[in-house]
Design brief:
The protein is α/β, with parallel strands linked by helices. Strand 1, helix 1 (12-23) and strand 2 form a beta-alpha-beta unit. The relative contact order is 0.14. The longest helix has 19 residues, at 90-108. The strands form four sheets. A seven-stranded parallel beta sheet has the order 3-2-1-4-5-6-11, with helices on both faces. Strands 7-10 form a two-stranded parallel sheet. The chain has a two-stranded parallel sheet with strand order 8-13. The chain contains eleven helices and 13 strands. The protein has a domain at 3-157 and 190-215 and 281-293: Rossmann fold. Helix 1 packs across helix 6 and helix 5 packs across helix 7 (222-232). Bound molecules: NADP nicotinamide-adenine-dinucleotide phosphate. NADP nicotinamide-adenine-dinucleotide phosphate binds next to helix 1, strand 2, helix 3 and strand 5.
């Protein structure tokens, strides 16, 4: 059994990975900026918390000390809306923060790195700060000299996520589902348990390297996905798509960027409406880890149907 550090272990993917790794008998340590985080999913589990910040290299040394493996699953608060005034940016947290983690991991003699990346990196077009930062972060782990794998996750859904669970709750009474823009961008949503499973398999299989896509088996448009989430929580009742025009969203993003705590930005709008997240190229979970993530219909039923 290994001692495993999870950065971002209080976040969606990190906490589900922590739960699974604990159940498998590993010793799990979580890096958090808070001294005493309270993570409901992990209450009662033997998880150690270490206070630190990926932007502050010195704070990472005690976190990585004595670890066999590290799962890097941090991202700045309020993703994907950057807040440069608070140094909450893709560059500060995803790129530089990951580079600091790699340096601390090397210093500590960590033998396996699992970086949680995004499938949008397979998209050749976008000169987006998030893609640039995550490409640099992937480069840092591959050039570290430590056996490393980057798991490029697709859109993740879970009962305790920030976005789909709210939509599912709201959809119980609302006759419509809000769709940003045309909702035509494609994705292959994956259940959080399958991402956690891929992380556990990545630690068990140190010979798997490079990039592995962690995608669900069903490719849909955002419009189809949002309608399916809304319908799954209300006993399959059909919902009316309510398209929010992209120019309106961009205007809201422009205004949002000027607020002290931005709730929306133009980059965030582009991320939500234009990023192709289909999973066509490269190895997936079946090839790399020998399992197939759950299908969307069954996954949504399992996740949200009880709310109906
Ligand atoms: N969720 C998705 O749909 C999805 C899809 C594709 C890829 N991904 C990728 O998967 C990774 C994890 O995403 P997630 O959705 O699980 O994240 P999340 O729920 O937003 O959680 C973010 C985590 O990052 C930590 N964090 C933020 N700033 C930090 C800092 N400066 N230093 C140390 N830790 C910091 C937070 O910990 P504290 O607040 O406790 O400090 C929190 O645990 C990200 O790289 C993301 O891009 C996610």
């Amino acid at each position: 059994m290994a001692t495993i550090l999870i950065t971002g272990g209080t976040g969606l993917i990190g906490r589900h990975a922590a739960k699974l790794l604990c159940a498998q008998g590993h010793t799990v340590r979580i890096l958090s900026r808070r001294a005493r985080p309270d993570v409901p999913l992990l209450r009662g589990l033997p998880v150690d918390y270490v206070q630190g910040d990926v932007r502050v290299p010195a704070s990472l040394v005690p976190a990585f000390a004595g670890c066999d493996a590290a799962v890097l699953s941090h991202q700045f608060q309020n993703f994907p809306v950057e807040n440069p005034r608070r140094n909450e940016t893709f560059d500060a947290v995803d790129r530089a923060g990951t580079e600091h983690c790699v340096a601390a991991a090397r210093q500590a003699g960590v033998r396996r790195l699992v970086y949680i990346s995004g499938v949008a990196l397979g998209n050749p077009n976008p000169p987006h700060p998030g893609i640039r930062a995550k490409r640099a972060a992937e480069r840092a782990i591959f050039e570290s000299g430590i056996p490393s794998v980057a798991l490029r996750a697709n859109v993740v859904y879970a009962e305790d996520d920030k976005y789909f669970s709210r939509l599912a709750r709201a959809a119980q009474w609302a006759p419509f589902a809000p769709i940003p823009g045309a909702g035509a961008a494609r994705c292959a949503p994956v259940h959080v348990d399958d991402v956690a499973r891929a992380i556990a398999r990545a630690i068990e299989c140190p010979t798997v390297g490079g990039v592995v896509n962690v995608c669900g088996p069903d490719e849909v448009t955002w419009k189809e996905l949002l309608l399916a989430v809304a319908q799954s929580s209300s006993a399959g009742r059909r919902k009316i798509p309510l398209h929010i025009p992209q120019p309106l969203l961009l205007l809201a993003g422009w205004i949002g960027e000027r607020l002290p705590t931005p709730l929306l930005s133009r980059d965030a709008v582009i991320f939500a409406t234009q990023f192709d997240q289909s999973c066509r190229d490269g190895a997936g979970c079946a090839e790399a880890f020998g399992f197939q993530p759950i299908g969307l219909r069954e996954g949504l039923r399992m996740t949200f149907a009880r709310r109906g």
